[in-house]
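Repro:
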Amino acid sequence: MRSAVLREAGASRPYADSRPLSIETLAVTPPRAGEVGIRIERASLCHSDLSVVNGARPRPLPMALGHEAAGVVESVGLGVKGVAVGDHVVLVFVPSCGGCRECLAGRPALCSRAAEVNGSGDLLHGASVLSDARGARVNHHLGVSAFAEFAVVAAESVVVIDRDVPFDVAAMFGCAALTGMGAVFNTAQMQPGQSVVVFGLGAVGLAAVMAATTVPDATVIAVDPNFDKHGLALRAGADAVTTPEGAAALIAELVPGGIDLAIEAVGNANVMGACLEMLVRGGAVVSVGLPHPVQQLVVPALQFAGSGKRLLGSHMGDAVPDRDIARSIEMWRAGRLPMELLHTDTAAFEDINDGLDALADGRVVRRLFAPNQGTGPH
């Protein structure tokens, strides 16, 4: 199969010239017990992919990248239940084991076993099944490796969906929707009448805007330096949009006394600190973005006990994938979650390095790829 492989992180920009991702032919073994084989119909570029390419999120290399995708089940390993050949599925980048401390506590997004294998480049039920033309191991990205024609994943990495959901939409439910919506509904547990500001209008931030606008009597403010994204935020339902420089003044005008909730989807410690300053007493900041590991957050400690402010981490939106993807699709069908707004375009698989530049420059929200376009089943 063809797959986009990263062999060295930290390539220089533009990526269209340095070409950190190479389209290679990889060998993949059939699904083992507990695994399924997926024909990838759509895969989309996410900042989490970009952070591996630029070295902000160190991963074992070489690695077949891609973690946000949808496809069709082509093969099923022994012992797999609830997934059958021909099913349409959304892929999920945290394959919860069901037996660790976090899973037993009802927080599968924090599965410790998944964190271990995602960090090592393995799968939940065994070592990597990918190898290159020389027979050398290639690591999996977050248990998915979706920038490829085919993927072998743990059965716990897929959620079966109705076949009438377009793949262009379905692909974005496994990361952008889970993370953005989950930050609002699961982590923040936003209540009617509350106000929220969302910093960072990538796919996750825009999904958070969409989710917040479904809360009755909410006030939703969106913030991004990229003016091209302001219109998207308004179409997603935001009441007002501004640049980071204008955020404090706009919040003071629309929500005197401070904002109830702030969703930080930038991945910047300074933005997290600024969000804390904008909160009303008892308000909460939800950290969704992925700062570079060297970044440090320095804030006045007294605002927590002194003002009851909270700083909440949100990994994959604290999602329960089966429940939350079904909820996302239901809201999409009802017109309350217009995920199509996030789909900027669909590009040729061979142009994936150009897509990295477009994402890094803020020219796209979600660029999708169809690795199997013009090819037959595996």
